[in-house]
Amino acid sequence: MHVQDFLSEERRGAVLRSLRTDEGTLSRDYLTAARNVLRELVAMPDLIQRLPLERKAGGYTRNLLAGNDAVSIWAIVWGEGSTTCIHDHHCSCCFGVVSGTVTETWYRAIDATRAVPVEEQERQAGYVACMLPSGPNIHRMQNLGAGDAISIHIYGFDHEAHASSIETQYTAVNG
Ligand SMILES: [Fe+2]
């Protein structure tokens, strides 16, 4: 598979069909399909870096690659120093790192709006992971490296029905 093909209507349709299962976007089959799509995409960093992705100095941008009423696939470009809020998800969230390093910090909620950091990992190019809304899934992603990082995200939400995958934002409290 090539990104050009992935971006063609035909290939997009095939990828989206591969992500559609009878049990929806929380099932084992769905997660397996999402990981397979991500593994293919992170294996072609040169082609992804050549895509006309929006970039924003100091911030991150989300670029919709494909979507339907069940899933959406995004390329996120992380500018140097960019960070998300601390958040969890209302849907399944699978991602793979294409280039650069994304630092992921995991948190544990102590009440409805506050969370304590429990673990920090550097996700290198090639890394693929999935998380489910049933948790644990409170995290923050940052680009602490030099230069942009790019990751691909497959979310179990309709981009026309939801603004993002974020359910709740938390404030960090040191444990
Ligand atoms: Fe997230």
Task: Give the structure's gist in a few sentences.
InterPro entries: CDO_1 (IPR010300), RmlC-like_jellyroll (IPR014710), RmlC_Cupin_sf (IPR011051). The chain is an alpha+beta fold and 175 residues long.
Give the helices and strands as they follow along the chain. Answer: HHHHEEEEEEEEEE
Specify the CATH class.
Mainly Beta
CATH architecture: Sandwich
Q: How many domains, in number, for the residues? A: 1
Beta strands, count: 10
| Global shape | globular
Largest sheet: 5 strands, antiparallel
Question: What name is given to the CATH topology?
Answer: Jelly Rolls
What percent of the residues sit in helical stretches (DSSP H or I)?
A: 10-25%
Task: Give the ligands present.
Answer: fe (ii) ion
Family: Belongs to the cysteine dioxygenase family.
Pfam family, one: CDO_I
Keywords: Dioxygenase, Iron, Metal-binding, Oxidoreductase, Thioether bond
GO biological process, one term: L-cysteine catabolic process
